[in-house]
Amino acid sequence: MIINSHIDGYFLKEIILSSKKQISLLIISQLICANALMVNVAHADDKKLDENTSGIVPEGISNAVSDMDMQVRLAAKPNAAPCFAENCIINQDFDARVQQLGGHLSEAAYVVYPNLKKRVPSFVFSVVDKKDPGTASNGGGKVVLFRGLQQLELTDDALSFIIAREMGHVIGKHHNKNTSTKLIISALASMLFPAVGIIGASSAATQATTATTLLTSAASTATSMLGSEVALAKMKPSQLIESDDIAINLLANQAWNIRSVASILHLDDDPEVKSTQNNWIQDLQVSSAHLQTVVDNEDLAVLPLDIESVSVAEEGGEPIDVQAAQ
């Protein structure tokens, strides 16, 4: 009995040490893989959107996974209060605006990106009764706006940008890339952290093995989620910029004024926005800043090469310098 007790203790100690080593290895591996995937995605983003390139995960699977992910995220969002009387009519008018603007943007998308029709046969737009402003989409072309957007009272050009910006995630294949990243990291977690299978004669060793298997399974899931979040967080800024640029292209096709959109979406002083500071609003402010940069660059491009030497026709007998006149 004393000998068996020593053996059981030895097995238990070895199992725990082995588990700790595997957990450490997996966490390091997940972070390395996340960074490596980010580099690959960054290179993939440089390709033209019109090229018929395929993601690592088949689009059918990616679309199904992205739709499930969208549904889960929507379920976690707080619902808007039920409408009554005139408010219901206001909601219906907003829904109709979304359908109309979305339809125009869909037409623009297939003109600007001719090969898009093969991958996304149609876009579907809807409004869900969620309290806070926001949007969501899946890889198949479903674009969802949150009821909370009505509180921002956006003009048609600004609302068109919001819709086009979410369409940009679909057009840019962001859902496919994100799904590929998650599934690859999950697969790596399974390979790098297999269930511990130690065969021992004693019951203590068997119980320890069972406990360690559960531990490794939980650790594998946790570190897989950690690796995915790290990778997606690094991919997000470039995806936001790309979706903004796609939205700008769609709005240009519809002859919307980007300068006006940039001004309207500058919501820092809006009390409604300040009271609902969520991640989506913060991302929108990043997009607003990007739009303003685009406008500023366009202004710089039309300035004379040597403004100091430029003058206009005489007025009152004196030449007017453009820089002084400004």
Spatially, the strands of the biggest sheet line up as 1-3-2
Spatial shape? globular
Number of contiguous helices: 11
* Percent strand: 5-15%
User: What does the average pLDDT come to?
Assistant: 76
The string of secondary-structure elements, in order, is: HHHHEEEHHHHHHEEH
Biggest β-sheet description = 3 strands, mixed
Helix content: 55-70%
Distance between the termini: 97 Å
Number of domains: 2
Q: Give the structural class.
A: mainly alpha
Q: Please give the radius of gyration in angstroms.
A: 27 Å
List low-pLDDT spans: 1-7, 25-32, 34-54, 195-202, 322-326
Structure summary, number of beta strands: 5
Short description:
The chain is mostly helical. Helix content is 67%, strand content 7%. The protein has helices at 2-44, 59-76, 86-112, 116-119, 156-171, 174-192, 203-253, 258-264, 271-274, 279-302, 322-325; strands at 124-128, 135-137, 142-146, 311-315, 318-321.
